[in-house]
Amino acid sequence: MFSHTEGGSHVSNRPNVENLSTAHDTTTNDFSPTIKPNVLMSIFDSLGKPNQVKPLIQARRSSWYVVWSLIVLSIAFIVLCSMSFLRGNGTDVRQCRMSYMTPSYTEITGFDGNYTRFASKYSLFLYRERYLDTSTTPSGVPVIFIPGNAGSYRQVRAIAAECAHQFYNTRSAIFNSSSNSILSTDFQRGLDFFTADFGEDLTAFHGKTLLDQAEYLNEAIAYILSMYKKSSSSEFPAPSSVILIGHSMGGMVARTMVTLPSYRPNTVNTILTLAAPHSMPPVSVDRDVVQLYEGVNRYWEKSFSQELIGRNPLASVVLISIAGGKLDQMISSDHASVAAIVPPTNGFTVYTSSIPFVWSGIDHQAIVWCDQFRQVIARSLMDALDVRNPSKTKTLASRMDAFRRHLLTGFEPEPQYPKRRFHPTIGKDYSTAVGPPDTVLIADDIGMNVVPNGQRLHLDGLGSRDNAVTHLMPLPSTMENLNDTHLSLLSNRPLLHPTKYATIDMNNDFEDSELYHGIYMLACKYPNSAKELSDSLFSILDLRKYTSMRSSNNQMTLDKGNIGLMCKNIGGHAVVLPQAKTAPPTTQKKPQPVAPDDEHEPMYYANFNSTLLSGYSYVVVVDTNEYLTPGFVLAENRPNCQAKIQISDSLWKYFVGWKTVEIPANSPIEVDASFESLWSSLLAYRVKIGPVDKKKGSKRNDFFTPFMRQYIQEPFESKYYLNLVPGSEFVVNVHGVAPFTPYSVTSEWYSNLHLQVWNDGTGNNGKPMEIQITVDIMNSLGQLVLHYRTALCILPIFIVVCVLMIQLEVHAYSAVFLSFEQGLRIFTKKYLWGVLILTTLLPMFLTNSFVEQFFYYIEPMMDSSSGEGPSSIFTATRKNQFFLGLESTHLCFLGPLFILVSTGLNFASYYVLMAILHLVLYILKPPGRVLGTMTNALFGTRMISLRPLRIAIILALLVGVVFILPQQLVFMVGSCMQLGACVKAIHNLRSIKDNCSSEEANERKQQQRQTTNSEEGENLVNYAVTVLIAMLWIVPINAPVLAVWIRNLSVSQWWQIPFGSNHDVLSIAPLMMLVEKITSGKMLPRINSVGCSQLFFTRAMLLYIAFYCLIFGIQRAYWLHNLVNFFAAWLVVIYIEQDLEDINTTDD
């Protein structure tokens, strides 16, 4: 089959001696065969492509500068990306305070083998804060902390300790408060933190381990709830559910738990995840992990579909995902998004830099112990509790309100569904108005100040008697003006809220209410009649000095000179903003980070579209400070058009230069600049503040130094930059549209970058403020590491497959197997440009719906749901899962860049590998008789036959795969064997050449035999090295799972719980058989080119592997091992058919 007859004569598979040469080439390895021009001419004449001969002839000599240019490019690219990634973007500063606690852990020994089959592998602990929690019997609200990949159960201590301190401090305050408090110590319950010891399992790399943890925790929940039933009192019902807190992969374990058959319905109702990858696994090297992610995400998506109305098992579950931002260099924070998993009324994603009083990015490990962050988490958890309910938590809507109040900035829109479909889990209907009046304001008309329309209210030196007490700002009267204006207020003093001490019943006599000193912000109107003040509860703000108010016959009477207004206290709608503690120097180049200390006082900002204040006539600002108080208040009512700036320039303009946005000196307090084309998570942007005031000795006369908020609408990400003076320069980046990650498709299409600037307009000597922005190439390189860290292991396999295709093609027609370097140079010379053009245009085709559906048909296991289907209630979402996951025409140069780098890496890897092989041979060069005998036995041409021993070892390994060994371990052994086969092939080739030069071959027949042996030896070396390079690129795919298996060896009694997966002997047997053939010194037979059956099938397989590697490889890295194994099986079949044909020939 592997030889054919021409004119009735038998044609051997061996190359024609007259057409081959083994001349030494100074630019390549000593043992790379050289094809003479006449051979190439004959090859392509037979192919019918004579016009392609010249470029191939010139490939080896004319493209050396291209080779080294690619090597330098690949090395420089990796070095620059690594430097950018390790140094960060320069503005994300670690601001976490260290947390302190006195931990103690009590093991739950009763949770043994009678309740779970994992009792010998995992353990369950109850955390207690020493000196506060003295009881080891749980009596509060159960919380389970789930550690992440290689995480420790002790990571629970920071959050658990803070919850304990806040509970006991609150309880002490309630106990010492007045007797008429509505709160009671008997009503309060703390949090019982349980934590699982998983032995620092590597769940990110092994799906079966993740499933084991989820199953163990479901069984732990049942046991924990039973503990409360035994010890609960009759005052409150025993808990029926738990709260889950998952760090990193622990968040994925928490979401997996509710999808398993072992899950008991309604035993989990709140899940809080910290730096957890939800949308895709960190690496796709294990089939079980990838399929688990797709199955779990699909379960969550479908649970909220309209098909399950009234039957949604997750209807009352809250899922909050908190990401650390750019400081998290272990998991991309883009993958923490849950926008496509739960509707906005059941969860959201927020970044730590957005959370009030945290205002900082947090790295992956610090997120479990960061002091200011754990304080906010503890407050939000305590606020979500209600021990009167069996679930021990508030209703879904109340829990979401609590988490939104503590974790969001306040700028975020209320949860709603643009599709406006009915669903029972949507929750309450959020109203757009501020609400009905709740306060009565009584003031002297003498102390009132009416601010004219279009003017700004400036209050400096609060409490000064030179200022009026009450300031009225009229609201627009027509609906047209209401829609076009908004009212803003900014102050560095707190805005006061009404309290129960100032609440009275207007139908009864009342005592003078207590008046707090500070700033009030009210929306007011005149009452239409006295009935509006009857039968209602109001807070009274009585600003009269010498008069009093009386109530008679359900009517309110005012003394002459006093004004009574019905108001709504809108100070509670103000959001807190970070405030710089110190003034900046005039030469400061970087914005000041948010200070982490406890004494940091925020600023307060309220912003209302006038439509929200419809029904009211004034916004009233009241200064009730009794003494002169440092601080300021700025308020204004301005048209919306002055506060919004839209920049719609294309992205490429930011690449080639600076884009300048000018904010006029008389602009509103807050201006929002929207950059419509800046939405990619792969880019970083450099921002400059100008113009620089070069006048020496110039002083600023503004109320506050300008500051900026960088944000996107979804997910909820904000970041603040303080003390912005002319000349400040910093880097910003957003977690908007990321590769392979679902993102929302709204009316604006993308969630783009916004820069929200606060500036009082009086600084910088009345000059306009300028914001200059451009793409920061250097910092953008660091963004590629987390998103494409597996690409430089996957795309080189595509190049190797293309080279192997060239090698097999030439070998089929000429019996010469090119070296890997020669094949790679031919690929670079003839086909690289076509591949670069293809990868440039590929993103445009991949976003086509027909192409997408075709690819989903090829890979049916991929999750094709995008949230756009008729059964979904989500905001429309989409995701790009193919190739590099890029949007159409967006950063289209990344594909060609990765191909060039992958080509350079293959050149570099070949040269490094050949250097290592020659170094091994040099080390094994026999200096003496004993070592020389050993070397000849192992690698010599007349070596002792070790094939039976090798076969026995391979069979033992394959049997071990069936029972306990992972196939990845056997692959590593096979790679080592292939390395030895390459060393042996080179050693044998050297011996043949040495014999050729030393022996006097006078006869022509002897000379031809020696030349033929040398040529066959060169073919074997080139073939073995190519196979070794392919296997080495597969090693990173197999190494993580092997690390999990090795890690499990350290667990006591590990044999009782098998590895549970990766025991498919068919996934490794063909590769081991191929390695054994090469180790035995057998060259691959020529693939039959007559009839094209074998050659066609070989081409088809290699083309499919190259196609799959390019399109699906990054998302399905584990499948590349299987594809290579399939091709190895095909090569083994070719070997076997040749062996059978040789036997038949011998018999004849």
In brief:
Its main location: endoplasmic reticulum. The chain has 24 helices and 38 strands. A hairpin with a 2-residue loop joins strand 21 and strand 22.
Explain how this protein is built.
The structure is a single chain. The protein is 37% helix and 17% strand. The protein has 1148 residues and is α+β, with helices and mostly antiparallel strands. It has four domains: 103-173 and 188-407, Rossmann fold, CATH 3.40.50; 439-547 and 561-639, no CATH class; 643-693 and 700-779, Jelly Rolls, CATH 2.60.120.1050; 792-869 and 877-996 and 1007-1141, no CATH class. The strands form nine sheets. An eight-stranded mixed beta sheet has the order 5-6-8-7-9-10-11-12, sandwiched between helices. The protein has an eight-stranded mixed beta sheet with strand order 14-16-26-19-23-13-20-18, with no helix packed on it. A hairpin with a 2-residue loop joins strand 1 (5-6) and strand 2. Helix 4 (157-175) packs across helix 8 and helix 20 (967-998) packs antiparallel against helix 21. Residues 1-62, 173-186, 417-432, 500-512, 546-560 and 866-872 have low confidence and may be disordered.
Distance between the termini: 15 Å
**Tally of distinct domains:** 4
Q: Which regions are unreliable across 5 or more consecutive residues at pLDDT < 50?
A: 1-62, 173-186, 417-432, 500-512, 546-560, 866-872
Compute the CA-based radius of gyration.
Answer: 37 Å
Average per-residue pLDDT, rounded, comes to 79
Class from secondary-structure proportions: alpha+beta
Please describe the biggest sheet, giving its number of strands, its sense, and whether it closes into a barrel. 8 strands, mixed
How many helical elements? 24
Extended strand count: 38
Strand fraction: 15-25%
User: How much helical structure, as a percent, in the residues?
Assistant: 25-40%
Spatial strand arrangement across the major sheet: 5-6-8-7-9-10-11-12
Please state the overall shape, judged from the principal axes of the Cα atoms: globular
